[in-house]
Design goal:
Helix content is 55%, strand content 19%. With 216 residues, it is of the alpha+beta class. It has two domains: 60 residues; 151 residues, Heat Shock Protein 90 (2-Layer Sandwich), CATH 3.30.565. Strand 6 and strand 7 form a beta hairpin. Helix 1 runs antiparallel to helix 2, helix 4 runs parallel beside helix 5 and helix 5 runs antiparallel to helix 6. The protein starts with a helix and ends with a helix.
Length: 216
């Protein structure tokens, strides 16, 4: 719901305003502009076009394709592969199968929480190692992200009220999950405990894999 509302605001507000601005510049160019103004008009047109493309990219990435097609587990693996290939972090993972328990909108929230926590490691931790786990704990699921960086004691530590942290907390609230962050000279650990989610019929989804799938 959060991302759908966000995308609607982007599309109906920012996206339309950018399109109107681009059309207005084109209309001004057709009427004939002085040479100096024509240069500025071209710059405005290029900026508007580039911004519209950026907006389209954001919209397309709002719910990763892996989530739709293959589930949260594959999406997290793809994310970790991308992080390891594009950074100097050594990535260690232990991902238990949680696809049956975390689906649909819940999967998007869990993925974005993991993504934000990992981004904080990349930007602030100065870590060498990153550990990511998904753990089935009874009917609940635990997402654990840990690093061996400098922790929040650093001069540029991630503020608790930063936009990324606020987004993580908001998503945890939507999931009914608990968020615990421990940090020290040994690094930082983020634990998210996600309770059983409900399916479209309002029934709780257990964390264990569907027995029917095992028999298939």
């Amino acid at each position: 719901m959060f991302e759908l509302l966000f995308l609607r605001v982007l599309h109906d507000g920012v996206g339309q305003n950018l399109s109107l601005m681009r059309n207005l510049v084109v209309m001004m160019q057709r009427t004939g502009l002085p040479a100096v103004a024509e240069g500025h008009a071209r710059m405005l047109l290029d900026l508007a076009t580039e911004s519209i493309e950026d907006l389209r990219t954001v919209a397309q990435n709002a719910r990763p394709q892996h989530l739709e097609e293959l589930g949260i587990l594959t999406a997290l693996r793809a994310l970790l592969d991308k992080v390891e290939n594009a950074s100097e972090l050594l990535v260690h993972s232990r991902l238990e199968d949680i696809d049956h328990a975390i689906r649909d909108t819940a999967a998007t929230h869990v993925y974005r929480i993991a993504q934000e926590a990992i981004n904080n490691v990349l930007k602030h931790a100065q870590a060498r190692n990153l550990w990511v786990e998904t753990i089935r704990a009874g009917d609940s699921v635990v997402l654990r992200i840990r690093d061996d960086g400098r922790g929040f004691a650093g001069a540029t530590a991630v503020p608790a009220a930063g936009l990324g942290m606020l987004s993580m907390r908001e998503r945890c609230n939507i999931l009914g999950a608990t968020l615990r962050i421990d940090s020290g000279v040994w690094g930082t650990r983020v634990d998210v405990r996600i309770p059983p989610q409900q399916d479209s019929a309002g029934e709780a989804i257990a964390a264990q894999p569907d027995p029917a799938k095992k028999r298939a």
